[in-house]
Amino acid sequence: MTSFLNFDSLAAISSAGLPATDAKAVAAARARQGALTKPPGSLGRLEALAEFMAGWRGTAQPKIDKAQALVFAGNHGVCAQGINPFPQEVTAQMVANFQHGGAAINQLCAVAGADLTVVALDLERPTGDFTQGPAMSEAETLSALRRGAEAVDPSADVLILGEMGIGNSTVAAALGLAVCGGEAASWVGAGTGADAAGIAHKADVVTKAVSLHRDATGMGVLAALGGREQAAICGAVLAARAARIPVILDGFICTAAVAPLHGTDPAFLDHCIVGHASREPGHTRLCEALGKDPVLRMDMALGEGSGAALALNILRSALACHNGMATFAEAGVAGG
Amino acid sequence: MTSFLNFDSLAAISSAGLPATDAKAVAAARARQGALTKPPGSLGRLEALAEFMAGWRGTAQPKIDKAQALVFAGNHGVCAQGINPFPQEVTAQMVANFQHGGAAINQLCAVAGADLTVVALDLERPTGDFTQGPAMSEAETLSALRRGAEAVDPSADVLILGEMGIGNSTVAAALGLAVCGGEAASWVGAGTGADAAGIAHKADVVTKAVSLHRDATGMGVLAALGGREQAAICGAVLAARAARIPVILDGFICTAAVAPLHGTDPAFLDHCIVGHASREPGHTRLCEALGKDPVLRMDMALGEGSGAALALNILRSALACHNGMATFAEAGVAGG
Questions:
Q1: Which CATH class is domain A65-314?
Q2: Candidates A37, A39, A313; nearest CB to B313
Q3: Where are the domains of chain B?
């Protein structure tokens, strides 16, 4: 059996049986938007977001009673290539910071009203160095996909995804290049603080890795060049789809994590929006390739799900207008 | 006596005694940002917003305990020129909608945690048709400035400004053209729903009005081409400055309302940010002229303070990170 929730083999993950948006609910939401006390279309992106939520939740007036935020953390063998100025211990230290409430994502979830869960994936056991061989075996990849899927709360109304992993902007660049093509130099950026020489070195490492794994296809790209947090993000995206939960992806690394799903079938990501445009140069290119227009542009490049959590405020505002505004008829306003 | 809070005559409104940002508080906020558990600068605009708030509130760790939203409404004599498809009665109908909680601004203030006050300014008495003479006498202008200033709650930590007034996108275009120059066609847009012929007509009306009042300067431009809600917005901006309350301006019409202050002295607007980039084409141009980079880009064009209220969520998020995050030392994270 092949299906989008089959984690028995990477080849078995197909878009067969993928739930679609509810066109009737979208149409009903659009009709409601047209009746609300405002010039048609004047709420712009907020109207589009309300219709997007309506389609995936299957109701003309969707609500966000429960917002879940999941941050997955992993460590990466490619750090052996010296692609990051921070030591790998920082991944676990930041996970502890998340758990103690001291990171940006904790504050942003508190403001936006999201329940945060942090999932640390075998931090003491980094993936393989993908310049030498595959980052993960198929079994390791499937295990991480499963852990991501299992972390999703099926009663959530929206899911925010984020990540933490020293070295994973290099992983993201490799995934972007492998799925979307181009030159490595256009996929690498400063990450957590690389200088010009460091960025050039990252580009060399990425070029070498993508060349080594040029025969990988579909979800095989994830095993060859990804990491556990990337696989867990893919698993969470698939589990959310099964429960018709819309997903807010974060920035460059989170969006690159799902690039192998896009490479397998772009329809996998129909229920996903991108929360913000990262300052990492590869993100603009990646969002264009995926056909996603980020909700926010804040010149951020932190990860952790920070841009996605920030975008949740916009989504809540969109639904507050959609559900709470009076219609022209209700308010006795001319022009409806 | 001339001073920025002197509403005895328009000529007396000068930037003498204008409070400035607190450079020490900004430096202390910047130092704190550098110590927080994130790569330097990775929160982008959120860091800049925290430092902006620190400077105007005069403290390294500013908070938003009270956010005030003020929406001013007025009617415009230029509607006699047929520049808007909606009847002028809609202004009062929308004010009633605000008061009953049915408009977009009500929902957006509820999500963002702002207390909304709506001030209707002599709706039954539209301003003069500025294609025939000045929109307001000096006394009318000063009265509206005063009403705007008096509406500001001096205990607020941030002030959101918005407006409602059928026909006031034509008023905004006239103010933008008069203060910043250019061609009328680049200052007019669809407003609440003008078609191509309607937009061309708006441009003709604006060209004629600005030519008629070409001798107006400084705050005299506000009397010649503005309206009561524009003057009230200017008054509120000045009263907020006196209380060191940062201001979030809304879109095209709200930003154009303060253009005469910019024309008098750009320093008048140092404590103001622009909440969102409106879809109205004149807004991009106006923000560039004023040196303001809007916080959000949501393709909105509603007014009411809607984009400013939406941006309050971003400001709250910025301060939550600024005040709530652990430092590298506190969290025991390497690399600080």
A1: alpha beta
A2: A313
A3: 65-314
